[in-house]
Structures are given as structure tokens and as C-alpha cells.
Amino acid sequence: YSDGPAMSTVDLPSKSAPDDGKFHFSIDRGGTFTDIHAVLPSGSVVVSKLLSVDPANYDDAPTEGIRRVLDAHHVSAAAGIYARRRRDEVASGAAPPLPTAMVGSVRMGTTVATNALLERNG
Predict the structure, then answer these.
(1) Whether the Cβ atoms of residue 27 and residue 62 lie closer than 8 Å to each other
(2) CA angle centred on 32, ends 31 and 33, rounded to 5°
(3) Rounded-to-integer distance, Cα 83 and Cα 75, Å
(4) Nearest Cα to Cα of residue 42 among 65, 9, 68
(5) d(CA 50, CA 33)
(6) 84 contacts 69 by C-beta, under 8 angstroms
(7) What is the pLDDT of residues 59-101, one digit of tens each?
(8) Could you give the CA distance from residue 76 to residue 27 in angstroms, rounded to a whole number?
């Protein structure tokens, strides 16, 4: 299991961060990397990057990015420590579902589709 590139946490409260005690995600899935921008319940901002395709470690980069942010900030469906998804769980599909009650919003874009439109191919 590889954690991939480290997450950067910036203690700069977002002026537009909702005050609802939840995590808010903006995700850009590109052809090579998926960028994750998360506003934590505290208002701090976390930025991370994952390979868009890494089947040995996860099924879906945006979902894994959300999972890692929640894991790094000790969120679970039962408000305890969220178990990190291991490689064998990926293969078996046994990883627990994301604790969506703690997710306030997910905004997602894809440069793959945008580039295809701009380049008029695909």
C-alpha cells in the first residue's frame, strides 16, 4: 500500500467555507493526476494529488482522495478512527464505505473531458 504524494495542509480559513462542520471537496481528475482540494470543518485547507489510475492501490482516485483526507483527520462513520484501506481490501472490495455524513459537498471537474472538447477529439 502506498500513500502516494503527501497532503499539504494550509491553515488559511476559506472565506467561502460553509460553517456546517463538514468536509467540502473540489476535485480535478486529469489524465495523469487527480488533484484534491478539501476545506476541513475547521476552515483549514488540505491539498493532495493522486495518480488518476492506480489499480494496485485503489479503484477510483476521487473516492480514494476523499477517503485519505477523512482518514488523515480521523473521521469514521462512527466518529472514531477511519481504517485506512489496504491493498488486499481493494482487491476484495471489502473496504468500508465512505462516511458520507461528514461530507458537505463534492465539486468535480475533469480536464480529460475539457481537453477532448478543446482539441476536438475523443
Answers:
(1) yes
(2) 105
(3) 9
(4) 9
(5) 6
(6) no
(7) 899 999 999 999 888 665 444 333 444 455 555 655 667 888 8
(8) 21
Cell readout for 33 is 493526476
Instruction: Spell out the residues 6+ positions from residue 14 whose beta carbon is closer than 8 angstroms to its own.
Output: 39, 43, 45
* H, E, C per residue of the chain: CCCCCCCEEECCCCCCCCCCCCEEEEEEECCCEEEEEEECCCCCEEEEEEECCCCCCCCCHHHHHHHHHHHHCCCCCCCCCCCCCCHHHHHHCCCCCCCHHHEEEEEEEEHHHHHHHHHCCC
With cell 477529439, the residue in question is 121
Look up the pTM and report it.
Answer: 0.72
CA distance 1 to 38: 23
One-letter identity of residue 36: I
Phi-psi region of 54 (alpha: psi -120 to 50; beta: other; left: phi over 0): beta
